[in-house]
Amino acid sequence: QSALTQPASVSGSPGQSITISCTGTSTDVGAYNYVSWYQQHPGKAPKLLIYDVSNRPSGVSNRFSGSKSGNTASLTISGLQAEDEAEYYCTSFTTSISAHYVFGTGTDVTVL
Amino acid sequence: QLQLQESGPGLVKPSETLSLTCTVSGDSISSSTYYWGWIRQSPGKGLEWIGSFFYTGGTFYNPSLKSRGTISVDTSKNQFSLKLNSVTAADTAVYYCAREHSNGCPAAYWGQGTLVTVSS
Fold first, then answer.
1. What is the pLDDT of residues A18-74, one digit of tens each?
2. Among the partner residues B105, B106, B111, nearest to A52 by beta-carbon distance
3. Nearest CA to CA, how far is B108 from chain A (Å)?
4. What does residue A17 show for φ and ψ, rounded to 5 degrees?
5. pLDDT given at position A40
6. Any chain A CB within 8 A of the CB of B75?
């Protein structure tokens, strides 16, 4: 099972909005509304930002939003802040071969 | 408050078995309605889901492990464990234990992670 495809890096200036894509196939992203997004700062465990494509857990800023179209999911960060500089990963449930989860390749977000 | 803590050897020899334990506090694995699991991250690389289990509902694994992994539970200690056999340098990673957020979201609560190096 191949990893979901994300851009290696995305950058933006403070206050701007950026979007990170996560491209899968019809057996994962396209098949289920089970896409999640995580933020990871260096040396730290990942933090859940979005689940079920577009839902935010309690305590996560509404500057983070998720969506999906076909086999591609997206994470948008609005009002970019310095603290948003981190690595971002998507993940999706899949039943390709057998039921399991597949992560994205990761995107390094830089705040200029 | 839910907390997870990984423990185990930081160094494992090639071809041997990696064994890690996750100690859970703040929730009971045996009465939980959530899946619990393991995720790893090779140095400088991305995340890889290893496997998850539901106490009364079975376990499922990443097929890329080719059946080398086994997750087990010790309810008396409120712990669950990972065994990965026939390890190679490619299994060197930070290993995290985690609890799902909801069906379809593999991890909302994470341990701090533990680095396991495979080397002779």
1. 999 999 999 999 999 999 999 999 999 999 999 999 999 999 999 999 999 999 999
2. B105
3. 6
4. -110, 145
5. 97
6. no
